[in-house]
Amino acid sequence: MKASNHVFSAPLQQLVNEHESLRAEMNTFYEMTEEIECESGPIVVQLFAELYNLVSDFSINLMAHSTREEEGLFPVMNRRLGKNDTTIEEMEEEHGKAEQHLEDFLTEAAQAGSNLDEEYAQFITVYAVQVYATLTQHFAKEEKVLFPLAEKILSKDEMEELDRLHQVG
After folding, report:
1. Does any domain span residue 36?
2. Measured between alpha carbons, how far apart are the two ends of the chain, in Å?
3. How far is CA 75 from CA 64, 123, 124, in A?
4. What is the pLDDT of residues 119-162, one digit of tens each?
5. Alpha-carbon torsion 122, 126, 132, 137, what sign?
6. Which domain range does residue 116 map to?
7. Do the domain assignments include residue 155?
8. Are 78 and 88 a contacting pair, CB within 8 Å?
9. Is the residue at 2 inside a domain?
């Protein structure tokens, strides 16, 4: 699901494009969570192993994306928005929430190790569903609110600064 047909300045468009590839990964692992939920028996543990690999890879890609936002876009916007605006604070909280769900999933799975059974696999899978739900909403909010706001308030120099930061990162 694409949030908008708007084309942004290069550094913002890069973030939107990253959302699209992250969404594709999320859709793949979400389909796997639905299979895990519907299945029973030994297949659940096998499917969970696949889910674990998908979520692990996704986590790495998400962290790289989040870092670009948290070290690039967010500080630049905060300078413009002023002390009383909570937009960036809300975005950072949502990042934290998604990262916590990811961490819970990965930690629980690692702790279970070879002792993982069908019931526990289904229990841990809920964290992946929470990651999906949190980020689906978060990406839409960034694309509908944050990025258009950035486009409006950031100067050409600030956009160039973001572009340079993205090239380095």
Report:
1. no
2. 27
3. 16, 37, 34
4. 999 999 999 999 999 999 999 999 999 999 999 999 999 999 88
5. positive
6. 10-26+48-168
7. yes
8. yes
9. no
Q: Which two tokens stand for residue 90?
A: 């809300």
Question: Pseudo-torsion of CA 119, 120, 121, 127, nearest 10°?
Answer: 120
**What is the 3 state secondary structure string of the chain?**
CCCCCCCCCHHHHHHHHHHHHHHHHHHHHHHHHHHHHHCCCHHHHHHHHHHHHHHHHHHHHHHHHHHHHHHHHHHHHHHHHCCCCCHHHHHHHHHHHHHHHHHHHHHHHHHHHHHCCHHHHHHHHHHHHHHHHHHHHHHHHHHHHHHHHHHHHCCHHHHHHHHHHHHHC
Residue 22 has pLDDT above 60, yes or no: yes
Does residue 4 belong to any structural domain of this protein? no
Residue 86 C-beta-side C-alpha neighbours within 13 Å? 3
Whether 95 contacts 64, CB under 8 Å: no
Q: What CATH number does residue 162 fall under? A: 1.20.120.520
Q: Dump pLDDT digits (tens) for 79-104.
A: 999 888 999 999 999 999 999 999 99
Cβ neighbours for 63, distance < 8 A, ≥ 6 positions apart = 99
For residue 96, what are its two tokens?
Answer: 């934290």
Q: What's the total number of domains in the chain?
A: 1
